[in-house]
Each structure stands twice: as C-alpha cells, then as structure tokens.
Amino acid sequence: MEKSFPKSLIEDDHLREVAERVFASALGSEDSKVELSLFDVAVDCPIGDREAKERELMKVAVEPTRGKTTGRKHLLRSFTVDPGLSQVGTLDSVPLVSSAKSALVNVPDFQRVAITGDYATGLSMEDVQHAAKGLFQAMAIREKYMRLSFQRFPCTTSFYLRCSENERWKEEDQVLPTFTPPPKPNEDPFSTEGAPDNLGYTARMNDGVVHLYRSQENDAQIYNLPYPHLETFITDMNVLLMLIADGPTKTFSHRRLKFLESKFHLHEMLNEMAELKEVKAIPHRDFYNVRKVDTHIHAAACMNQKHLLRFIKKSYRVDADRVVRVKDGQPITLEGLFNSLHLHPYDLTVDSLDVHAGRQTFHRFDKFNSKYNPVGASELRELYLKTDNYMEGEYFAHIIKEVASDLEDSRYQHAEPRLSIYGRSPDEWNSLACWFLKFRVHSPNIRWTIQIPRIYDIFRSKNVISSFGEMLKNIFLPLFEATVNPQKHKKLHVFLKHVTGFDSVDDESKHSGHMFSTKSSKPDEWTTEKNPSYTYYMYYMYSNIMVLNNLRRERGMNTYQFRPHCGEAGAVTHLLAAFMTSDNISHGLNLKKSPVLQFLFYLAQIPIAMSPLSNNSLFLEYAKNPLPEFLQKGLCISLSTDDPMQFHYTKEPLMEEYAIAAQVWKLSTCDMCEISRNSVLQSGYSHEDKVIFLGQNYLKEGPEGNDIRKSNVAQIRVAYRYETWCSELALLTDAIKCTDD
Amino acid sequence: MEKSFPKSLIEDDHLREVAERVFASALGSEDSKVELSLFDVAVDCPIGDREAKERELMKVAVEPTRGKTTGRKHLLRSFTVDPGLSQVGTLDSVPLVSSAKSALVNVPDFQRVAITGDYATGLSMEDVQHAAKGLFQAMAIREKYMRLSFQRFPCTTSFYLRCSENERWKEEDQVLPTFTPPPKPNEDPFSTEGAPDNLGYTARMNDGVVHLYRSQENDAQIYNLPYPHLETFITDMNVLLMLIADGPTKTFSHRRLKFLESKFHLHEMLNEMAELKEVKAIPHRDFYNVRKVDTHIHAAACMNQKHLLRFIKKSYRVDADRVVRVKDGQPITLEGLFNSLHLHPYDLTVDSLDVHAGRQTFHRFDKFNSKYNPVGASELRELYLKTDNYMEGEYFAHIIKEVASDLEDSRYQHAEPRLSIYGRSPDEWNSLACWFLKFRVHSPNIRWTIQIPRIYDIFRSKNVISSFGEMLKNIFLPLFEATVNPQKHKKLHVFLKHVTGFDSVDDESKHSGHMFSTKSSKPDEWTTEKNPSYTYYMYYMYSNIMVLNNLRRERGMNTYQFRPHCGEAGAVTHLLAAFMTSDNISHGLNLKKSPVLQFLFYLAQIPIAMSPLSNNSLFLEYAKNPLPEFLQKGLCISLSTDDPMQFHYTKEPLMEEYAIAAQVWKLSTCDMCEISRNSVLQSGYSHEDKVIFLGQNYLKEGPEGNDIRKSNVAQIRVAYRYETWCSELALLTDAIKCTDD
Known about the structure:
By secondary structure, chain A is an alpha/beta fold. Chain A contains 29 helices and 13 strands.
C-alpha cells in the first residue's frame, strides 16, 4: 500500500457554493433555539406504541406485500437475502452473507423475513441509483480516511465497495489498529526499560500538522508518511455536505431506515422465543457475566457522588494536618482548607456537595460544568479531581484506584476513563505521565483515553497562548518527540503505551458560525479570540493523529483511535466531520436529524457510545432518547455512563445505566448482551483482551465472529443483523451496477 | 369510647338499586379488556409536558385569577390558607394550619400560593355543598371503621369532620395501633418466656367472624368486643358506591385534584431553590442516609435473581449429598434432585433460571406467577422459596437472612416482607411459627407481614376445603386461640408479636362477577367452586382482624394493620372496599379511574405503596405510571419493589427503584426524601423505631411533626403539603356549614 495522502483538486465552485448553503442552513436550524423540537422522535414514549405497532406489523406479515411500483426500471433481482449464493463476486471471497453459510457457522434455524418480487421503494430507479452512488462515494471517502489513520472500517462494507467498482476485495487490504497487549505475568506495566532507540528525526509543525524531518539541519521531509492535504479534505467534506442535503438520497435513506426498523420488529416477533431459547441453553453465561465496557466516562467524574463524599470524609480523618495546598506562598493544611470554606467534612452530604445534575441543568451546559466543583469550591475540585496540584494528584489517583478496584471486584465490568490534556503548555504530557507512573494507576479493568477540550477561546482570551497553532503544538509535538526518541522521554513513552485514543470534548451547542474551508486561517494565523469551528478542530486532530499513527506503526508501537464527543447537540455537520475522521463517537443523538448520516453510520457500522442518563439531565428526556430506535435499526450502539458523579445514584453506575434502559425500553437479555458485545468491540481493549472477552474469531463479521458462549448473544440475532446489513449493501451495489448496463 | 359496632338498618331500596347499577357498570367497563386505555393518563410521557405546563402556569401566576362565578351563592370566605387564624373551632384545638403557626415550628419563609376573592369552581353552590357532604360522609365512614380496628385515621381530618358536625375534636379520640417495640439489649426476641395467662375464652366462628364466649360450656358472648354488623357494612358500602358515581361529586373531586396538581407546580417553581437550600444546609443527612422502608415486598421474591442463582450454586457446593426431599418414600439428595432435572448448578445462569419477568409477562399475570418456579421446576421453588418442605424451610430462611444482612449493611434500608398463610389447614400458623423460631429469622431491618392469597376456588376445586367458612376458620381461629391462651401456643404467640399486618393478594384482574350484599351466601354456605368477590374477602378479613385487634389491645398485645394489594387492576370497587377497611394499600393504580376515590384517598391521607417497576412488567408502562402525578397532588406515596427476583437487576433493588423513578421523572432530593419519609410512616415499624427514624414528634401532622435533621425533607415542603391539605378540608367544612345558615 502506498503511503501517501491521495490528493484531489477543487475546481468545482458550484460544489463549494452548495456546501456553504447546506452548512448555513444546518447552523440556521440550530439557531432557532428550540433544539428539542428538532428531534423528530414520536411524541409518544417508545414503549407506548410497541403493541399497536406489532399488531399492525403482524397484519402486514400475513398479507402478501403488494408494493406500488412507481417508476420501476429494470432492477429485477430480489435484493434480500438470497439463500444459497450471492451474485456479487466469487463465492470464496464473499463475506458470509447467505443463510446457507449461516448454517455452516452454527446458526440455528430461524424465521427469515424475505421480500420477494420486484424492487420497489416508491422512488424512481434513477433516484435510487443516484442515492446509491452518493452513499457508496461517501463510504469510499470514510474508508480512505480510516485506512490512512489505522482506524477501523468493516471488511464487509469494503467488499461491497470493491464489487461496485468491479474490483476484487482482498483480505490484505484490511487495516487494523494496534493496542498494547495486557502485561504478561511478572511484567511491570510501568517499566521504563527497553525503550526503543532514537530515530533522530526532527518534528516541526507546518500549518497545524506535525511534519517530520531527517534532522534539525536536514530539511528533507520523511517521505513515507502520509501528510494530509487540506484541499482534498475540504473537497471530500463538500461532497458529503451536498449528499446529506440531497433530496432523493434523504428520501431513500429515510425509507431504508424505516424498513430496517420494521424488519427488526418482524424479526423480533417471529424469533424472540428462539433467541431466548438459544441464550438460555448456554451454560454459565448470562447478562451478569458477559464483558461490558463503559465506553465513555470522564475520569474526573468516574466515581459516584456518594463515593466522592466518602473519600473526602476519609481523607479528612487521616490527613487533616497535612499540607495540601500552597496559596500566596503560605502552606495550607486540609483542615485549614476546610476552615477557609467554613465547613466541616463530617457535616458534608451529597446535597451540600452538590455535584449531581439536577433539574436545573437541563439545556444548561454552563450550569452543568460548574457541578464539577464540590460544594461549589474550585479548590476542592483541584484537590480531589485533578492530577496537577500541590499533592501531584495523589487523591485523584486514589479515587480512580478505588473505582478500578470496584470494577475488578465485579470482574466483568470495564471502563475507558478520559484524562484531560488542554494544550496550554507543552509540559502537560510530562506531568500527566509522571502522575501515571508515580501512583501506578493501572488496572486490567481500565483503559485510558485522552480528552482535549475545545477551549482555545478561553486560553486565548487569558493570553495563555497566542494562536491556535500553539495549542496544537502543545498537544501534539510532545507525542511526536516521545515517539521519535523514547529514550529521552521514557515516562511519556510508557504512558503512551497505555493510551488508546483521543477524545474531543466541549459543549456542542455553542458554535462559532465559522465554516471550515480552504480560505480559513491557518492555525498559526488563528489568533483571534473566536473559537474555531468543530470541523476545524476535527481536521487538525485527525491529521496529527493520522501522521502520529503512521509513525508509531512503523516503529511497532501502539496506535490511537479518534473517538470524539459528537452529535450530543449542535449542527449535524459535526457528525459529518466525525464520519470522515473518527473511529467511533460518543452520543450521536443528532443522527435523528439527518437520515443520510444515520444510514451511513449504519452501513459503515460506526460504533456509537450512548449515554441516555446523561442526555436526560442535559439535552434530551429519557423517553425520547433515540437509543432503542437506533438499536432496532441495527446501528452499532453501546451504553456508557459519561459522568457517574453527576448522573448516577447506585454503587454500580454502568449496571444502573443498563438496568434503566432495560426497564424503560423493555430490552431483552439478547438486546442487552448485544449492546455489551458492541461495547467491547468499540473499546480500545487490545486484540489479546478481546480474544478472551469475545472469542478467537471476534474480528470476523457476522455469526462466524460471535462466540455465544462468551457473548451470550443469540446466533440468530447476529445472523439477522449480518444478513440484513449485507442485503442493504447488496441493494446499493446492484443499483450501481444496474446503471452500467 | 363505647366498644360496639354501631348499626344501621337498610330501608333504602333505592340506595341498593343504584349501588348495584354502579357496581355493574364498574365491572362492565372493566370487561371491555382494553384495560390500558382505561387509564386516562395523558398519552404523552409526563416529563415531556412539564416545561410547557410550567410556562402556562407562570402566565396564570402573573395574571390575576378571574374565576367565572357560576351559580355562586354566599360562600364568601377565602378558603385558602388564612394567615393568622382559622375560623373553625377555637385556636388552641386547631391543628397547625396557618402560616403564622408554621413560623412557630421553624418553617423558613416561602412563597405561598393564595387564591383570593370569592369561591368559584364553575360548579353551582348546591353541587359543591352536595359534594362536600358526600365526601365528609365517606370520611366519617372510614373514620368509624379505622377506629373500630385500631387502624390509623389522621387527626387533622377528624378535626374538620368534628367541625362540620359542630362538635369539638378531642385528642383522646385518636386511635393508634400498637407494634411490638424492638428487643432491648440482651432481650431475646425469640424467648417464649413470660407468655400471658389463659383467658379461658372459647373462640367460635359465626357467619365467618370469630366470636368469643366465656367458655366452652357457657355461651355468653364476650360483651365488650365490637362484632361487625353485616347490614351496616353493606349500607355504608352502598353509600360510598353511590358517591363515587355521583356526577357533581365526580366533577368537584376532579377539579380539586387538578387544582392540587397545578398548585404544586406553582409551589415547585416558586420554592424549589428554597427547598433545596434548606436541605443542603442540613449537616450529615442526605438521601442516602434517610430511612426508607420497602413497604411492599414478597418474601419468596425478596432476593434478586443473581442472588438466588448464587445461593443455589453455593448450596450445591456444600450440600450435594444431603437429603433435601422425600418422594414416594424415597429420600432424594440435592445432587439427585438436580440430576432428575437434567441440569448441573454450575451451568445455571439467570437466563436458564428464568425467574425474571420479561416482555412476555405484560398483562399476563398467569405467566408471571409461573416465574416463581426456578428453571420452571416447582421442586426448586419448594426447596428454596418455601417454609414447609422436607428441610423445614432451611434454605429459604438462609436466603432471607442474607437479604436482611445486606439491608443491615446498608443501615438505612428496611423491608416488610410478606409470608404466606393459605387457609388450607389450621396447622399452617404453627408450622410458620416453628420455622421462624427454629431459624431465628429476625433482623432490625425487617418487619413481617402475612399475605393471604385469595385462592379459595383452587382449594375448593381440589377438595382441600369444603367451604369459604372453613378457609376463614383455618386462617383466623389459631390467631384467636393463641391470643386467648398464649401459654398453650407459645411459639405462635412469639411469632405473632413480630407480625405487623395482613395483606390480601392475588390477580385483581380476575373477577367473580359476584356483588357482595346482604343476600350473599354466608361463608359456611359458600361451597361452590366460584371465588367470592374482592369485597367479600375484604369484609371477612377486616371483621376478623378488627375483633382480633380489640382482643389483643385488651390483653396489651400488639395489633395488626390491614394492608391489602388493591387497585393494581380490576374494578374500582376494590379501592372502595379498601377505603372502608384498610390502613393502607399496595399499588392503587386504579385511583386514576375514580376522581372521587382519589380525592378521598388524598383527604384521608391513606398511604399507598407503589411499585412502578412491577407495574411496568405487568400492568402499566413505566412512563404512564400515575406515581408522579399522585405525588404532586399530595397523595401519601411510598416506593416499594414488590418482587426484586422478578423485576430488578442490581444488588440494591430498593435503591434501583428510587434511582429509576428519580431519573425518569426528574424527582428532586426533596421529593425522594418525602417518599422515603412516607414509607416509614406507612410501615409497621414500632413507635420506638419511628421516633429514632423520624424524630420525637413524628406523630404530629404538618411541619411540627417533621424533623428535617432526620428526614431531610424541607420544612417548606411539609408546610406546603399541610397548609394545602387543611385548606381543602376547610373548604369542604365551610361548604357544609354554609348549608346550615
């Protein structure tokens, strides 16, 4: 594979113009401030309608379907699962798609929903072909960006992409990330021994992206790294912007999604008991002992409120006389600190601690953020929830270790907490690495992710930094330096082995109004106090991670996933940026607003870590959360807690999250185990871990990859999902090939 | 107070006729089988409407109210809280009602909602007076039945009843139950020493009610016990049946309830932050460490599914070779038992255990009941979840002790599990008492209740008993015998000290079609295979408990509360029967169907133990549960789990119940603590316990009785509730007095 960023040139002014209009209208609709009403969820609570829907569906199932064949052309092949063989590609290279193959991999018989007869969507064939082409073009764009950055793209989708291009999919084309395997017995995960040699390269940032050079003196660029090409990115983005606003594609996507939902309802009615039977027959495995990963949780709020309260009280009993702070050169003891706040820890309650999101925080991200301060005192936040304080983050490390030990006790629960890097100074990485090594914060039930808040504007207005470029340098240069010369940056090198990805965080409902284009100021020239747009941040995060991953892969080191917060609020363009750049996302609520993006997220099976309890306190009421709908359609959903300190009540926040979802949405065991399995797949756990959690074949897509003895997900369910996915992809492929006739 | 059951004669055929029509129509509407649609809850999810509602209310609050004074007569007095003094009764005997008095008991200032100007409901004054008279008559009926049986009736309501009768309320009139206090240090709660002497009476059942006689030979009835009078009960019941169907009373009650709801919304908007401030200021007390009682939980399902699974596995590891059963004279070991079921405990999972209510149980009480059998095997139910098996209930006792020990660890969580007495044979009580004493099943965090399933029809069809009278004898005669002669029934005597009440349980949606009247067969003549009606059961349960309580009170023993399941499904007449006979109820969902009963439950503050998660699996979807609405209106609501084994996922089912309610309905800390406080008040914990849990004055109604340092309920909230309640009662009193002018 050639290591270069394939370029394209913008010549199409029309394209840019339309893209700008779409962007403006996306912003516009968001400006109207009635954000809630924009979620076009049914007003009813989802469980409410179920019975009525099922009755209707049953009727449909009994009567033969007589589709209205509007504008039908000549796509005569039935596009649902074709038992026996697929007509695309030769059989041996076909990913498992047919029910005949399903039988080979031990899927029990189940009732399949087959739509026979001519293809008829109520759309003209031209429109379908147009939509199919657009959707495949979009997926090809995502495939390109994922491969370039060692992020994941499903091989089933790649297979159909190649088909539509009349090419052959090759297994070698699949690109996979590298995560650090768990330490071997007697191996010290904190050992700074054996760091690789210095490559001698020099890292310098050009236009916001780190470039590597032979040496300080030699300006020869390291050739085999794929540096990004801004113009190409912008062109690709504009193509996608046009696509999501394109009428026929919107209609088509909307119909396919509705179809997917109805088809699942039918599947459920027909096979629910069969799935249950499968799951019941598996010895020793149930929802309680399948692996589940909390795929989105902030380290600073990973303990619940009661836990934090107890920790504060305990620290006071033990450490009252200890100096915990220096203010104006004066040492302050813990007792002194509490005296200055006029409170005694014994009297503290979860009420006075006041870190729980209440009714007051709904649609008020600003109020929510201040909840991070216990008793409203930023001193306590600094002392208990930060790594860089006078005590070098000792309390924070202890709290996290207690959380980790609770997870270890539970055995099957894992978490991926996020630690912050702000980009205020180049030293942040080092101090975080020192904290990590000093307190030996490592647990088999925890994997680390780095979150980078999008708060350039705050630092700029305080004159902490002079340009956006400086912030990017502070964030990324240390990573390149430690990768080029681990010998010199041993601690950071060790810490980086344990980091699995990057998150980009902030309130998405704030927006800059700026549209990212080739005319946008370059990072070094970005010196205003205005914050760049979400997409601008995404592009520069992605680009640097991409180059970094390529360098690290070459050195045999682990690579990073980009896993931003996306689609919690704000414009749908955020989701578009993530579609191009991110391995997986957190939230994704706004996929409700764009059927095209929602269908693309389905087709590319982009994992989405959803946190309905967090949404319930901030942006969207529980009963209106699209999670059950997404799950039914077959989007790759996992459940996560976001901030147990703010949102949860019990000692097991992740179980609370699952329990409430199960209760309110009446999820079956199979549903819950499917979500758990998704969470493991989405996570940054290493190949070695995933083999233990999910079985030897977990990388295979479809029922072949599901080990029911480990996942407790019925093979019938996985086969249904896989066959349905393949037939959607096959439908698009057929439509495209049709045009060529 | 005279100890006799005041009688009245039926002469009013019209009354009976109308009552029969009402009953028939109540049944009729229920027959239509679209039970769900009968709950006239808004189709929207309750949280959904909140914001819109609040905006509207704000408008109302700003504009001066200009009520339409239709048919107004001469009720000129403002009926809302009258600051300073109440015009009813003399001030010293007035229960705390005015805001001036509120200040005396340490209620912070808050914003009160005052409706000034003439009284105007949109109803004619005649109608209001008519409704007021009917409602007060109904409450007088309840007051009578509660006093006769040593059950609770609030003195505030009694006070206003006396006012309306131009009488004076006296504190001595208040009747309170007696519960056994907790054992003193070094006191053995299981000691059979010191049982009182034999009274020498003879107990015999006449027409379904136990009567006491001087001795076996001497037929002189014990004069000072109030035996019930069937005709009077029927007359009272018919009065109530007419009332709940009376048009003006329905309209009036509906309007008052709507008013209460809106008033609370206003209160919340105006005082939410003030309440929060109060609660925050209380040191060391928060939602986690206020006492909460699980007021409705069945012992046979009081452990969660994971707990039962673990217990089964553990018992197998320890006891595989032990004989646990005898079948056809052959001893069977635990291993043999599992072999005969073709399963190995190691392979068991919560899926194969299959005791969790799934989607399949919704509206299927029959399927739900079979979930009590682990792995579908009644042998396992008998072994693990019963007291009367070959092992004498050893495993069941161990499981309950583990649950109790979890509660003790939590310190602030309590439960009132129900044990079953069926009435199949007179020995049941003794065998239960032996189990209790043998395994010493006692915990400070547990109080016992006895549940009696309404399954006469099953026993009759199997010829286990010959008449309903025999079932009643089996249930009640042993209690009287042990009360008359504790020396002879020492174990039962001790066990009865630890019982606090009786529950009546079964699927309410089954109904007999029989209407209870003076013409109904007497219990001894009830020999058909048909089950008597709910009301028939209620009357005979109540009557026997009433006589028993009077006897026990005379002997200085503890008394019992009647706490039936009521209003979970079925006809509204069930709630009417409970209104007459029961201290408090479980479920109460059907109060939605009858505004009159709902308003009466409010006015008499009858506690309702609600279990929304149980309802969600059986009768009513979570988002449609009326709990938040009831709570806002001021009904006395507590939260309970019903059957953790079937419904809950986490290790702390009661916390799960609270957490989900808090999340889905966005309850504030104050709401949750109010519910917790209600649960303690409702419970069968003794006076001594309640003083510790809620403070010295807990028996006083209104803010005087609330110790915020223990309950964490804002005084503002309690004052609001109390003032609102008093003004509703005062409104009725004024309307009645008006007529007399």
